[in-house]
């Protein structure tokens, strides 16, 4: 652990990247099946992907985590480190990640390409415009927005109630000034003024659809099924009614092909799609994951936030819809984060505190138990920090052992694949033994009962509550024919409860449901618990203030 580690961007800049055709060659993909973006990134042609249909699937491994804290957990870094570790021990493995949004890059969270010596590269490209997928998604979304107001302007044949237009606009940047706007101001020629607003692109239903679609035909069908508003007698109006689905698909026809890049150790990584992990399912695209499973023996992917949100949605939405059967899960934890869940302030995390580790370990324990409720075996990856003591690490190991799971110290941030060899061996052993995966609830359970099942089984809640209007909405969606959809819980990522300050593993709390939203194209029901921000704002001192080009025209300040 004495190795000096530079900043993420410094390490990424020193990487000896291979031409992307060589990375593809490791997977048996010929150059003719690549759509290159420069020398180090490429898309894989959809025709080639179709040709893989009859091949046997590899084993799918999910990387998830405890509830996130300001202390950091390193889920993406661990995903990359594990993929490298599996390749290091002689296994054919591919990593599947989400694409980063520009909002966090220029805001406060930074990028999402891993860290230290467990990164995907080219880091600057991945964290910025990459292959233009998000621009295509934003364009398709805003085309639909424009078609709605244009239809209203030219006579409103479909009978939009302008008070009930549900489709907003998007941009891939944090801009609180655009959360609520009034559009079409300035006179008759500009249309009929109405309330409107912007979400960040990753919160778009188009993004969720993009990541759940299996091919272009499925994409077109789902886009057509988007409900964009209602008439005065509350009948839904669909994107297909506006004849928007064809043009939206045209804008996405190239973006839907998965992106291939590499890790610092030149191992293959697919990075494709990136839906919000609150109001959507927070996983990379089905097309990327299913393609990777045809090309590798082991596929390592991640899901957003902690296991209560990300893993649950991965299992209950993505795996259910795509027919995936995960073989094993890795739950990432840090001693620092466990101490925060145990009540320690951030400024005191450098001091040994075994009692706080044990107290905070209640959060980890519930996540282990929850993952096993899906029939998936789990191993814990302890992402080690320099200040962690052996006694603190032993406390985590003992806790996990009592729950029947192994806890393995990982040093991939500083050592790359060398720091995840032990984890890789453990994951192979678990995955090869097989799982008994099953979703938490059946399709035919009522929407209300699906929501209550998640709250009680995974959050430790006593139950759920909602106003009559919200409960009536549950019944209304079922009457409309959407009762078989899975539910997508939108709540704070920081707690099992709806109170972000309630750390650890709270029990017997009640989960209040504020509203529910229908994502008819993505084919899930969003259950909103508390306030959910779909257009973030910039902090007082945004990361953008420190990002610049140096004298060599290299990017500085990106992390």
Largest sheet: 12 strands, mixed
Which CATH-level-2 architecture of the largest domain?
A: 3-Layer(aba) Sandwich
Unreliable spans are none
Structural class: alpha/beta
Using only CA atoms, what is the Rg?
Answer: 23 Å
Overall pLDDT metric: 94
Number of strands: 26
**What distance separates the N and C termini?**
22 Å
**Relative helix content:** 25-40%
Number of helices: 19
The CATH fourth-level homologous superfamily of the largest domain: P-loop containing nucleotide triphosphate hydrolases
Number of structural units classed as domains: 3
- Give me the CATH fold name of the largest domain: Rossmann fold
Report the principal-axis shape.
globular
How much of the sequence lies in strands comes to 15-25%
CATH class of the largest domain: Alpha Beta
Summarize the structure.
With 559 residues, the chain is of the alpha/beta class. The chain folds into three domains: 8-132 and 259-433, Rossmann fold (3-Layer(aba) Sandwich); 141-252, Domain 2, N(10)-formyltetrahydrofolate synthetase (2-Layer Sandwich), CATH 3.30.1510.10; 447-528, Formyltetrahydrofolate synthetase, domain 3 (Roll), CATH 3.10.410.
């Amino acid at each position: 652990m004495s190795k000096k580690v530079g900043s993420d961007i410094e390490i990424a800049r020193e990487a000896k990247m291979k031409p992307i055709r060589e990375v593809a060659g490791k997977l048996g993909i010929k150059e003719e099946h690549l759509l290159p973006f420069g020398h180090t990134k490429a898309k894989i042609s959809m025709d080639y992907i179709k040709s893989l249909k009859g091949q046997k699937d590899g084993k799918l491994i999910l990387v998830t985590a405890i509830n996130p804290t300001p202390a950091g957990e390193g889920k993406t870094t661990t995903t990359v480190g594990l993929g490298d570790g599996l390749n290091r021990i002689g296994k054919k493995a591919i990593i599947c990640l989400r694409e980063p949004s520009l909002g966090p890059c220029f805001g406060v969270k930074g990028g999402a390409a891993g860290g230290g010596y467990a990164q995907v590269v080219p880091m600057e490209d991945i964290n910025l415009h990459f292959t233009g997928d998000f621009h295509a998604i934003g364009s398709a979304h805003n085309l639909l927005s424009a078609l709605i107001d244009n239809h209203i302007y030219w006579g409103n044949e479909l009978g939009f109630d302008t008070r009930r237009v549900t489709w907003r606009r998007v941009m891939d940047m944090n801009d609180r000034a655009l959360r609520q706007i009034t559009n079409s101001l300035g006179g008759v020629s500009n249309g009929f003024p109405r309330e409107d607003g912007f979400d960040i692109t990753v919160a778009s239903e188009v993004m969720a659809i993009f990541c759940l679609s299996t091919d272009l035909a499925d994409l077109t069908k789902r886009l057509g099924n988007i409900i964009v508003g209602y008439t005065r007698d509350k009948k839904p109006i669909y994107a297909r009614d506006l004849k928007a689905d064809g043009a939206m698909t045209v804008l996405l026809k190239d973006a839907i092909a998965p992106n291939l890049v590499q890790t610092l150790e030149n191992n293959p990584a697919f990075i494709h799609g990136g839906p919000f992990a609150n109001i959507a399912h927070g996983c990379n695209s089905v097309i990327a994951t299913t393609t990777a499973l045809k090309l590798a023996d082991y596929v390592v992917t991640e899901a957003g936030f902690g296991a209560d949100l990300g893993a649950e949605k991965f299992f209950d939405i993505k795996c259910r819809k795509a027919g995936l059967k995960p073989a094993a899960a890795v739950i990432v934890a840090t001693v620092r984060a466990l101490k925060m869940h145990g009540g320690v302030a951030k400024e005191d995390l450098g001091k040994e505190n075994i009692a706080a580790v044990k107290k905070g370990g209640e959060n980890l324990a519930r996540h282990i138990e929850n993952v096993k409720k899906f029939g998936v075996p789990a191993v814990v990856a302890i992402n080690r920090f320099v200040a962690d003591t052996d006694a603190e690490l032993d406390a985590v190991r003992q806790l996990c052992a009592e729950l029947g799971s192994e806890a393995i110290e990982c040093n991939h941030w500083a050592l790359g694949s060398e720091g995840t060899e032990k984890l890789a061996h453990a994951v192979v052993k678990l995955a090869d033994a097989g799982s008994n995966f099953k979703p938490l609830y059946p399709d035919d359970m009522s929407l209300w009962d699906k929501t209550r099942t998640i709250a009680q089984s995974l959050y430790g809640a006593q139950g759920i509550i909602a106003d009559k209007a919200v409960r009536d909405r549950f019944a209304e969606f079922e009457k409309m024919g959407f009762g078989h959809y899975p539910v997508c819980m939108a709540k704070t990522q920081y707690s099992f409860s709806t109170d972000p300050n309630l750390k650890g593993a709270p029990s017997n709390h009640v989960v209040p449901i504020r509203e529910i939203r229908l994502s008819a194209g993505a084919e899930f029901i969003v259950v909103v618990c508390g306030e959910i921000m779909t257009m973030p704002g910039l902090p007082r001192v945004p990361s953008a203030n420190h990002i610049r080009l140096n004298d060599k025209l290299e990017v500085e300040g990106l992390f």
